[in-house]
Amino acid sequence: MKMTIYQVDAFTNKLFGGNPAAVIPLDKWPDAVLMQQIAQENNLSETVFFVESENPDFDYQIRWFTPEVEIDLCGHATLAAAYVLFDKLKFEGSEIRFSSMSGLLTVSREGDLICLDFPSWKPERLDIYPDELSAILDYPEIVGVYKHRDLVVELMNEAAIKNCNPDFSLMKKHIDKMIITAPGKNADFVSRFFAPGAGVDEDPVTGSAHAQLIPFWAEKLGKNEMRAVQLSKRGGELWCEQKGDRVIIKGTAVFYMVGEISI
Fold it and tell me: Which residues, in sequence order, are CB contacts of 85 under 8 Å at separation 6+?
């Protein structure tokens, strides 16, 4: 069996920035165990697979795997898959409709930007949260703790986000996925994302985290259109919009490589 594999840096306009994703188009689904093994071999935060849909309401079915688990939503790998479809496989439509574990996801283009239409996942404030949280985050001052899919921890400012030095071994024992976030200096908000429970200590840029951050900051800032920066070492930039029960996440992508998997 041979598969074509692409690698794309998402949410960046420069090579070696943003979040790298492996993109593998398929004619039909292989066994999930094999897809997990390929993701583990790639050792990127996500490997995305897609096949043409037999349902006329969708163009493709899409699935995402970290090195350890299949996940229900991934922004940067969806952006990377759309980039491959638009630029390398010459998809002829103006909008790609993906069927996913999180429902319908549509992706379109706006100049150089690729636009993701994702569900809006507003996190709700928690009165009770893990006692170990301050120790996990090296005792920063915590403004508030919230949760939807992931734990969302609001810190005081951008410096607190940059300087946070998590204990990943301790985090993995108590928390599967965590977002830390604060107002930004030159952006509306900044964040970092940790997922040691999924085999990714820190993800460079995370679209699914912004499905939660956009409704959170839209309400807090009283605005629907925002610019966000993820403060990982590679860094990433996202243009965000709260739109009813959906969020729009926009970003650019850069092509890195194409190759062949032989199994």
Answer: 60, 91, 96
pLDDT at residue 14 tops 80: yes
Q: Token digits for 123?
A: 């996190």
What are 194's strand-pairing partners? 178, 202
Residue 95: active-site member: no
Helix (H) or strand (E) holding 25, with range, is strand 19-26
| Predicted confidence (pLDDT) per residue in 19-63, tens digit | 999 999 999 999 999 999 999 999 999 999 999 999 999 999 999
Asked if residue 98 and residue 84 are part of one domain, the reply reads yes
End-to-end CA distance of the chain: 5
Counting the structural domains of the chain, the total is: 2
User: In terms of C-beta distances under 8 Å and separation of at least 24 residues, what long-range contacts does 182-186 make, across chains too?
Assistant: 182/143, 182/154, 182/155, 182/156, 182/157, 182/158, 183/157, 183/158, 184/158, 184/228, 184/229, 185/158, 186/229
**Mean pLDDT, the chain, whole residue set:** 97
Question: Is pTM, for the whole model, over 0.85?
Answer: yes
- pLDDT for residue 72: 96
Same structural domain for residues 164 and 76?
no
Instruction: Point out the catalytic residue in the list 46, 154, 158, 237.
Output: 46
Whether residues 140 and 102 share a domain: the answer is no
